[in-house]
Amino acid sequence: MNNNNKTVQRVVKTAIIAALYAAITVALAPISYGPIQFRVSEIMVLLAIFDPFYIGGLTIGCFIANMLGPNGVMDIVFGTLATFISVYAISLTGKFVKNTKVSLLVASLWPTVFNGLIVGWMLYYVYEFPLLLSIGEVAVGEFVIVTIVGVPVIKLIQNKYHGLSVKYN
Fold it and tell me: Domain limits of the chain?
């Protein structure tokens, strides 16, 4: 396959990931935005552990979802930043933690930490919600979706499609 075809494939894959993230988030808007967020699309952030290539599509998808959401410019900037930092940390976890079972669990905690702090602060700033409550609510939503739901979903996919493994290992 020549370089032009590889470039086209990468652009198409990035667009598909971004579109899926944004579409799932917006379709489930009542639970995707606000102080208690169960953003089901966040399960997809775990893809970054398998290949850092997914960072771009996930970040773009979050950006689009936040543009279409109710929280305005602050969410577009800070919510997208939180997702970028989370998926980058997930990617680094795949690179540095060589045990796949441990790395997936550790990686799943980054969105809880970064989105909890950054998005929790943003909700405090925009809506004057209590700071610690905002951080806690966002963190709990991320933990439920990414760690409790997402990790088993990814493990099921790994069991079904044996070729899905961490690229760094």
Answer: 3-160
